[in-house]
Amino acid sequence: MTSFSNTIEKNDIIVSGVQSTGILHIGNYYGAVKNYVNLANEIDNPMYFFIADLHSLTSHPNPLDLMHSRYLTLAIYLGCGIDPERATIYYQSDVYYTHELYLYLNMFAYMGELERTATFKEKIQKQADNVNAGLLTYPVLMAADILIHKGTKVPVGKDQSQHLEMCRTFGNRFNHYYKKEVFKEPLAFTFTDNLINIPSLSGKGKMSKSDDKSTAIYLIDSDSEIENKIKRAVTDAGPKERNSPLSEEMISLFDIMRVFSAEEIVNEYLKAYADCSIRYGDMKKQIARDAVSTLAPLRENIMKYISNKKLLQDIAYAGAEKANRSARITLEEVRDIMGLTAKNINLQSSN
Ligand code: TRP
After folding, report:
1. Residue 37 lies in domain
2. Is 80 among the domain residues?
3. Fewest CB atoms within 10 Å of the CB: 174, 211, 228, 323?
4. How many domains in the chain?
5. Is there a domain that residue 174 lies in?
6. What is the pTM for the complete model shown?
7. pLDDT digits (tens, 9 = 90+) for 195-219
């Protein structure tokens, strides 16, 4: 079975979220948020886009930071153009039914498979002094996020495919044990032409919230911050021979250029690299100019939302209400099936 899909069917339910640790960067925007905006604009299916504030608790953020980053993430969702009338936008922690489903699904998640999750193994390396059970069961909470709305399409990057696989496993085990098709199998969704991977400005790996701040372009960076970061992006020492292959650093820089600059311009610079006439300073100036012209209007829009606390609160409240309505229906069905209600008790037949 393929685990990726690039089509949306009539009865698909779309669910996705971004973890609210720190500030979102252009990798989050092109990898996730921009897809949400497109989906909300183009498709009439039910869709739920939440701010995964509970997932960020695994790294023990201080409450003030968490409060700010979840608020900022909401402002970014809206400022980037997700229409809250067309998509349900909410804070994950506002939907308690998800927390409850997480508990039930934990009964169907096994230690061995949780310990084998790639992201968990990575985390043990990165935060060896804080390997908590929340980290271990991160994929279970993610499954609860999706299954609580009976989600079928999940717009996420490739790095989440193992988590989605686990979500299908937990849902299937539940269905199998209770002999009822409660949960459908959710697939990762991606627009075909949108598989852009945003590299780090360090020239190594992808852009990440947990790396040095100078290696990521944040959606609220000022024009001069964007310019300075691009200016300092790591390059190689320049091509030594004609037609030499791109170094790792230059593959990254060209990938960033492709996001912001027109194709002809990118090709011009590729040609200049091939004939050794390239000037990295000029290339960076070009990228910075194009990046600023794309990102400045987004930032201004985000700023408008940031300063409108009342509007943000109203939107979060309305979103939570809508999400809770959908979640409650699933959860009541789940409780019934599990025997956690009195609904199906038949005293005569149990004697
Ligand atoms: N794990 C996702 C990430 O790091 C965030 C996330 C949490 C999510 N729950 C989800 C994404 C449910 C999609 C669906 O990006």
Report:
1. 4-198+309-338
2. yes
3. 228
4. 2
5. yes
6. 0.92
7. 567 999 999 988 988 788 999 999 9
